[in-house]
Structures are given as structure tokens and as C-alpha cells.
Amino acid sequence: MIIGVVGKPNVGKSTFFKAMTLAEVEIANYPFATINPNQGIGYVKVDCVDKEFGVKCNPRMGYCLDGKRFVGIELIDVAGLVPGAHEGLGMGNQFLDDLNQADALIHVIDVAGSTNEKGEPIDLGSYDPAEDIKFLEKEFDMWYLRILRKGWEKFARTVKQEGKKIETSIAKQLSGLRVDEDIAKETIRELDLPSEIHLWNEDHLMSLASSLRKKTKPMIIAANKIDLSTGRENLERLKKEFPDYTIIGCSSESELALKEAAKKDLIEYIPGEKEFKINGGLNENQEKALNYIKDNILSKGSTGVQDVMDRLVFDILKMIVIFPGGVNNLVDKDGNVLPDCFLLKDGCTALDFAYKIHSDLGNSFIRAIDVKTKRTVGKDHKLKNRDVLEIISGK
Questions:
Q1: pLDDT tens-digit series, residues 161-173
Q2: How far apart are CA 385 and CA 323, in angstroms?
Q3: Under CATH, which number does the domain 318-393 receive?
Q4: Is pLDDT of 45 > 80?
Q5: Which of 66, 116, 154, 305 is most deeply packed, by most CB within 10 A?
Q6: Any idea what DSSP says for residue 176?
Q7: pLDDT digit string (tens) for 186-243?
Q8: Could you tell me the pTM of the whole model?
């Protein structure tokens, strides 16, 4: 799974990315500080199962803090997008195309309204962040439309003359954007588009592009800079204005400061939690900064950064986590306890999980055992979040 971090310049997008990944990225107060996409690993948080078995886990990938398991997901942070990006403004086409591979998007906005439409710093509260949500929607819709319209007349003529299914041809045209035949067919049906493709007009294409974008690039809004004075009021207004979006208030700078302090063992902090414990060794400036975060951010909830990832993956993408394990042994050959944890689509089966681990396990699947209940289950057994499953195969 790959998640893209997007937004206009100077809204704290790279700070958000670094707060999630602790990757070294350039953070600067000017447009297009990011040119080449940054890549890193962010994490979703889930309750680990180790305490239920009275053991201490040893993750091979990700990590576990006080019973909270963090499962890695690849993030890409592209340069800031500006109005007209789909026409190439601000190197927009390049950066939009960098997002082809993304399964979902995090749109970081300046909820305090302290940057204009170009990403330039302005007086606090003098810009309406609602405009950023609208502009990015338009840019992505126009991006899909641009690809859809490429050679459209020839495309439509070929479909008609050769009698090909419209959804098959649409899927082929937009395959680079994760549009498959089923998605295309469902969308055409939902929009009630004409059965004859030569009857489709510009409005039909625009509706199709927008609907396909929503299905293949689901998006969550990270309303950054919530710590600034105009932030929380704007956040509540945006939630009412855009009820179809999940909008999470966050302070990327605060999350980054907490993670950096925890990395240096100055504090004990679990990402996404509402408190931290000071270990000592703080200088005056560090203590002042941490107290500010405690009083102005955590007293009202978390920093919001971890919430953005968790809500996107579990609520919007509908993923669950499954742990491989054995009824009689939760340890791998190297002595690691519950070393692995996999993300799968909600509704997945025991057989799906076997293939997720390795194709050989799927091909030779015999049965599985629910380790928590010690119940034998078949290949079609639907899995639940935080299940622990042992796969019995013929190999």
C-alpha cells in the first residue's frame, strides 16, 4: 500500500511527512521546497495481541510500544500543487503523475488560513482554507479528465466499430490510475451514462472522471496548524461545509517535536496519545516547547497526525490487521514472538491471508486455525481485525 501526501506549498506538508516517518526532508518557508518526491515509512497504530497471550512481541517490521503495534506503510510526499497544476503550472503534471501509484491521499491544508492560494505566507486568517479543498478536488478531477480525453474521438470510434465493452476500454485507458473493469462498470452504472459511447458529452466525461477519482484516490484532509489562533474555528466550519470528507485537525510541528524528543529519550511518548512522560535532561527551551504542546495541543486531544493515518487506513480504506501465529507456538525460527502483522482488506478470508504471507501457502492451503479460539476454519472463513491465524498447508 502506498499513500500520497499532497497539498499546496508551505502548508506544513513536509513537516507532516517527517512527523510520520522521521525521514530527513527539506522543510522551508517557500514554495516548491520539495522537488523530487520524498519516500518514507509511516505507521498505523493498532492494539497488539501480545498482552492477550501474556507475551512480549518482537516485530520484524514496525515496532510496538506498551501494547500498541505500529505497522508500516509507504508514504510519498510530492511537491506542492497550485491551481492550474493539471495544465503544468508549478511542474504540476510531473507531480500529479508521481501520484499514479498511490492507493489513497492525505491532503494537508493550512487550516489557520496563513498561506494564500500560491502557498505564500500572509496574515493569519486572511485566506479561506475551504478554497484549498475545492482547488485540489478540481486539479485531480481535471488530471483524470486529461487522461480520459486523450485521443477520445478515436477511442470512442474504436469502441463503437469493434463492439468492445465500454468499461473494458475505460479500464485500459485509466489502468495507470488503478481503474479496473469492475470499477469502471460500477461507475458507469451509478452515473447512468448513455449506453452508446458516441452520445457522451463533456459533462458525462467530467462526471466520470470525478467519480473514478473518488473511488481510486480516496482522500482524507489533514487540517494542519490547528495550534494557531484561527485554526479550530476554521476546522469546525470546514467539517460542516464538507460533510463528505473526513477532516482531522492536527499540529505537525508538535508531533515532530514529540517524536524527536522521544527519539533522544528525553520523553516517553506513544504517537497518537494525549500525554507524554518527561525523562529529564531537558534544557530551558525544550521544557518550554514541550509545556506549550501539553497546554495548547494535548490538553484538547492528540496532535492529530497519527489519527489521520489511522482513520484513512481503517475507516476509509477499510483495512484490518491479522497476525500469523501458531496454536502451540507464537515464535518464529529466530526466536521472535509474534514477529509479523499484515494489513488486509476487511472481508478477507483465511485463504486470502495465506496468499498474503506467501503464494505457496495459498496454493497448498488445507485449513487454518483461529489461534485465539483454537477453532479450525476453512478457506472461506471471514477474518476479523486483530485475528491471529495459523495456516495449515500441504507443504
A1: 777 788 888 888 8
A2: 9
A3: 3.10.20.30
A4: yes
A5: 305
A6: G
A7: 999 999 999 888 888 999 999 999 999 999 999 999 999 999 999 999 999 999 999 9
A8: 0.90
Where residue 47 falls (left for φ over 0; alpha for ψ -120 to 50; beta otherwise) is beta
State in words which class domain 142-215 has: mainly alpha
- pLDDT, tens digit, for every residue of 241-281? 999 999 999 999 999 999 999 999 999 999 999 999 999 88
Cα 2 from chain centroid (whole Å) = 7
223, 129 contact by CB (below 8 A): yes
- Where are the chain's structural domains? 142-215, 318-393
Q: Which three cell numbers stand for residue 206?
A: 467530467
Task: Report the first-to-last Cα separation within the chain, whole angstroms.
Answer: 29
Q: How many residues does the chain have?
A: 395
Q: Indicate the pairing of strand 38-47 with strand 247-249.
A: unpaired
Contact 298, 275 (CB under 8 A): yes
pLDDT for 32 beyond 60 = no
β-bridge pairing 219-224 and 104-110: parallel
Rounded Cα distance between 15 and 111, Å, is: 15
Give me the residue label for grid cell 485540489.
Answer: 136
